[in-house]
Amino acid sequence: MANILIVEDEKNMQDIIAEYMKKGGHTCFTADDGIDALMILKSNPMDLMILDIMMPHIDGFAVCKMAREMSSMPIIMLTAKSEESDKLKGYEYGADDYTTKPFSPKVLLAKVNALLRRSSAAPLDVRSIGKISVMPSSRKVFLDGKEIALTHKEYELLYFFMMNPGHIFTREQLLNRIWGYDFEGTTRTVDTHIKTLRQKLGSEGKHIVTLIRSGYKLEETL
Fold it and tell me: Can you list the domains of the chain with their CATH numbers?
């Protein structure tokens, strides 16, 4: 059972999503706009957020960006648009997945459960490469001893690389492994997340090496 925040200004859609999440055994919190959503997040720990983009007062992109500063929970964005630029913008702000309207509530619940499984499945050891240290039990990342904030997908990418140093992965392999086979986006999503991950790792971002026409790999020693 997880605490899920549903941010959707269409009452009928909000009720449908909440109904299916409850059928899946989850506890639902609902917000009609971005302001209410941020107030709920400040006072209630959430395990996942389902966030509509088009909302009054504050749009979903702004809410996603502010929510990411407060929590590393998975965020699924709902959109009536299918433009790649909108999806890339959402990923840059910290979204983990996208669902385009109209959608199947059953598929949305499956995505929610998959993200929750991935976020909770973590061994208890500590993995370090260079000045980067990852604590899977708490999903915390430290750079030269100081904790840094990563989005859910940035963390999964980094941890996957650190568990497979030296291995070359294509963009398609990373997309399927981190986002899942039912993901609706393109491999540019991988490039966007690698870019922001490197930026947050500073000089240690050099460990993530780009191989032209091949993909990416993590080098332990450089």
Answer: 3-120 (3.40.50.2300), 127-218 (1.10.10.10)
